């Protein structure tokens, strides 16, 4: 393991705007590779891309370091042939010494935001791709939540003759953003529908349609002669309307005490 390696300022420029937790992953990966030449663990996509940006330069610098430890570049093979004739020119010999930094200056990454190298371009493309995938996942999650919100509760305990009627009532409750908080309260509502309808599907449908037509939150016995088509406007006097409302409130109170209705339900 090496004791040090070169970390360039342009790397930090590319890293500093990342989230703190991502910065930690990237810096750990670069430092680990710079000192040991390898990475441990599974790198996340952004950390992997940033390491790819720095890896080539780290490998070049480490190779120069190893060459310097061995005495620099190999010396040229000296020729045993003597020069023929008179030499009028002067041949300049290359300066070969152990100073690897003088012979092979490091290739500095570009400074500033111009002339980005291919690795940084690739990183930007990958970041855009990751952002697009994240947005797609968020859309799918929202769609699943919306789908779950419209899913009706289990009503396997409901008789086949009443299933469509009871489903109609539950969908109406969903549209009002109301729901039964437990299976027990749901079963109590079904039991109440059977009681109000006398176990007759047609009457049960009229009971449900009456509550829906009057925008009620609960189920109540049929009123008037039209079985579900009447509402408070059919009353001939204010006194009759008040009497009807009082009757419904009293019945609702009894239903609550008997566990046949939720607290959220109201007759009006």
UniProtKB/TrEMBL annotation:
Pfam families: DUF6291 (PF19808). Residues 4-78 form the DUF6291 domain. Residues 94-105 have a biased composition (Low complexity). Residues 62-123 are annotated as: Disordered. InterPro entries: DUF6291. This is DUF6291 domain-containing protein. It comes from Paraprevotella clara YIT 11840.
């Amino acid at each position: 393991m090496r004791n040090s390696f070169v970390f360039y300022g342009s790397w930090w420029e590319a890293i500093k705007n990342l989230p703190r937790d991502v910065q930690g992953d990237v810096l750990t990966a670069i430092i680990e590779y710079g000192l040991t030449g390898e990475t441990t663990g599974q790198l996340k996509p952004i950390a992997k891309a940033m390491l790819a940006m720095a890896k080539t330069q780290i490998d070049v610098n480490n190779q120069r370091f190893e060459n310097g430890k061995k005495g620099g570049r190999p010396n040229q093979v000296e020729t045993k042939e003597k020069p023929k004739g008179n030499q009028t020119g002067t041949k300049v010999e290359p300066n070969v010494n152990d100073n690897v930094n003088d012979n092979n200056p490091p290739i500095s990454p570009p400074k500033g935001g111009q002339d980005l190298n291919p690795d940084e371009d690739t990183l930007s493309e990958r970041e855009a791709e990751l952002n697009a995938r994240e947005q797609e996942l968020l859309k799918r999650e929202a769609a699943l939540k919306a789908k779950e919100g419209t899913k009706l509760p289990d009503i396997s305990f409901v008789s086949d003759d009443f299933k469509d009627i009871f489903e109609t009532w539950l969908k109406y409750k969903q549209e009002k953003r109301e729901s039964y908080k437990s299976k027990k309260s749901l079963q109590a509502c079904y039991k109440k529908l059977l009681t109000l309808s006398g176990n007759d599907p047609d009457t049960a449908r009229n009971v449900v349609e009456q509550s829906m037509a009057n925008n009620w939150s609960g189920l109540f016995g049929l009123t008037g002669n039209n079985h579900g088509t009447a509402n408070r406007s059919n009353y001939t006097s204010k006194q009759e309307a008040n009497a009807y409302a009082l009757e419904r409130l009293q019945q609702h109170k009894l239903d609550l005490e008997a566990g046949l209705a939720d607290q959220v339900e109201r007759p009006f």
